[in-house]
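Aim 2 progress. For Sorbitol 6-phosphate dehydrogenase, the working sequence is reproduced below.
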Amino acid sequence: MIEKNVVIAGGAKSLGKFLSLKFKEIKYKVIVLDNDKDTIKSLKNEFSDILYIETDLTSEESVNKAFEKIEKIDILVYNAGFAISNKITEFKKNDFIKSLDINLVGYFLTAQAAAKIMIKNKTQGSIIQINSKSGRIGSKYNCGYSAAKFGGVGLTQSMALDLAEHGIRVNCLMLGNLLDSQMFESLIPSYAIKLNILESEVKQHYIDKVPLKRGCTFQDVFNMLYFYTSDKASYCTGQSINITGGQVM
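Predicted structure tokens for this construct:
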């Protein structure tokens, strides 16, 4: 079996860490790009067989320096994300720009750098963005996040067209609410205010919206990610795949 190299941008914690370890379990060479210095330092001691590169994913210079250290890429997963919840009349420009930088610009920069290496090596690789149902339908009090995620779908389709001649596939996964993720947990106080309910009731509120009556799990994400990066999905590119339990169809 030929060893595959997977680069996970935003792979040091929460969902990203889970995906990194799942790929490690199936003997992929895992390379993590992240800017969380303390977390990276801790993970280097715990998982020495994973390569961690401290990277500011919103900086072209930092991203290019990181990819100079990578010789071969079969798969790029862009998992970095940022969300802040506020009504449009109160939403700050800096927060909107930060949402675009982390959720969209970072995806562009890493995908561009990865594609150059794949083309150079004639690797028929796979690029996947971890997107959101907020990139499919508008999200109340989440204009920055939703706008960036909608942009991710257009970027995915455009890159799929650009890279098809090289055999490189580009897709994105549209996740439902990851109720156990650090991002969702950080938003619970603002969601409670938005919904006028107790913080302890927020997760159940979102579960009740889902026909299958549960949140999206990290394992749900990996199952679809593994399929779409495998040869079994070799005829799929430019797709945005819902993983929402039927909430968004």
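The chain is about 45% helix and 15% strand. This observation will guide construct design in the next reporting period.
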